[in-house]
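Justification of resources, computational component.

The compute hours requested in this renewal are based largely on the per-chain cost of generating structure records like the one below. Each record pairs the submitted sequence with a full structure-token output. That output is archived, and it is also reused by downstream analysis tasks.
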Amino acid sequence: MALTPEGNIEQGRFAAFGPTVYYASEQTEVAGLAVTKLNAAEASIALPGEAYSDGIRQLVESGEGSIPADATLGKALKIVEGNDSIGEHLAKGGSVGTVIIALGFVCLLLGIFKIKEITTFKTPDPEKVQAVLSSMESGNTVDAQKAAQGVEGMGGELLLTGIEHADEKRGTLEEILYEKILAVRPKLERFLSFMALTAAAAPLLGLLGTVTGMIKTFNLITIFGTGDAKSLSSGISEALVTTELGLIVAIPSLILHGLLSRMAKQKIGDLEQTAVGFMNGVAASKSNNAG
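The structure output for this chain reads:
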């Protein structure tokens, strides 16, 4: 009999090949390597994978089969058993690790939102701006307004405002257009400061987790001494995992913040270029009319 990974004791047959013992259940399809554990009455079954199950069963039943060989005499299985799942690995970070993960998740959602918001923000094409200026030069304000209304997004509003105040002095017109651009800046740059804060705070939270984990480790050393390494592993794991999580969150946040900031500045720069081009066109139109 042997203990399956599901915790059931099943009747089966064993076959030894060198130092390794193989097992095939007579009740179910379970087949794997038989491993003895401390204080266990029955051997435990380690599953090497479905690809080897048929070969192990053939070996046990007929004496022939394609089987996995463990040249490390069981150490490879211990390494595999010691590998944590993603959830188990993250859980070692403790409460500080949870805060870092939550911060990174919020930053990721905001990053996706900002990418969509900035990429869908439309700036006017130079050709459409030139069409507006051509109508202004010919003195046809109505056609200029129609051309500006055909420009999507904030660029159209900027041109309509410029047409409405085209008779103002250049300094006054510049202030009016700049005011419209300033109204757009907060929308394009919102939440970017939170990403920068996340990039700066995540490593510090990781450092906090490191200090907390080391304090926990020293407390365990005081209680259990240094002889039992397993009792100290929880504190050491917390110290290392929180540092890892802090860097995992900080580096992408920093890169994302830099890219989005550059994209936002590019959009604002396009609007400023449109405003300057419009003012220069209006000034040239006034000069021609005066001449």
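Residues 85-291 form one domain. The mean pLDDT is 81.
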